[in-house]
Amino acid sequence: MQVSQRVLIRVRHVGLVFFLVASGCEQTEQPLPPIDAPMMMPMAGAGPESTPFIMPANVDPRLAPAAEVSLNPAEAVIGVVIDGSARCYLQRAMSDLEAHVLNENRTARPYCVTWCDRTDTVRVFAGRGGEALELRTGGFSDGRMLLLHSGQMFPQDSAELPYEDLNFVRTTYGEWVQEHPESLVFSGGLSAGNAAASQSPVDPADASNETSTVQPDPVK
């Protein structure tokens, strides 16, 4: 009688284990959902002025021919020439947090334009070997903008970012279009009639002094 009870108990035990496994109680690692909204992210060693977070990647923003864009000639822009194609980015439009980092993968040589409105720092990157870029805004640390690359945060001015720095020009929209009338323009939907001039406008009288090709001087 005792032997039968032991056998019955053991059968019930085995059946319970089988039921739990079959019903999915055994946990499996689930992939993280794609980032489609800002997400706060803790960062080791971040100071009190640090606000690390992750923004969705801004990829292939709308560019329009200069002939279709109405902007104040004194607007500050960031100009680049990629594979012979001139493009300029309205600084005022890039003041939007989601537009601090703009990835362009429609060109034969993908590139990324970054601007930090807190430090007024610009860097333009090119992927190596034609790789597509999806840099993200990663918040700020000690007043400097962070960039998220492959799950790792880098200050915008870090020399450890695995990209090539490209030359760019900081000038006025009027000066840029005069030199590159066929340029494509990122305006973020803004125009001369729906907002004031850029936060850092350039006086047309001093444009010749402000127009310059910038060689980045990143620091670690």
Helix and strand run: HEEEEEHEEEEEEEEHEHE
Low-confidence segments: 1-48, 194-220
Total separate domains: 1
Q: Approximately how much helix is present in the residues?
A: 10-25%
Distance between the termini: 78 Å
Please, could you describe this protein's structure?
By secondary structure, the chain is an alpha+beta fold. The protein has one domain (55-214). The chain is built from four helices and 15 strands. The protein has helices at residues 2-22, 91-94, 173-179, 207-210; strands at 39-40, 51-54, 64-65, 76-82, 85-90, 101-104, 111-116, 121-126, 136-141, 144-149, 152-155, 164-166, 168-172, 184-186, 212-214. The strands form three sheets. It has a six-stranded mixed β-sheet. The protein has a five-stranded antiparallel β-sheet with strand order 1-2-9-10-11, with no helix packed on it. A four-stranded antiparallel β-sheet has the order 6-7-8-12, with no helix packed on it. A hairpin with a 2-residue loop joins strand 4 and strand 5. The longest helix is centred in the N-terminal third of the chain and has 21 residues, at 2-22. The model is unreliable at 1-48 and 194-220 (pLDDT under 50).
Offer a concise description of the structure.
The chain is α+β, with helices and mostly antiparallel strands and 220 residues long.
Describe the secondary structure blueprint for this structure.
Blueprint: H1 2-22, E1 39-40, E2 51-54, E3 64-65, E4 76-82, E5 85-90, H2 91-94, E6 101-104, E7 111-116, E8 121-126, E9 136-141, E10 144-149, E11 152-155, E12 164-166, E13 168-172, H3 173-179, E14 184-186, H4 207-210, E15 212-214
Parallel strand pairs: 5-14
Antiparallel strand pairs: 1-2, 2-9, 3-14, 4-5, 4-13, 6-7, 7-8, 8-12, 9-10, 10-11, 13-15
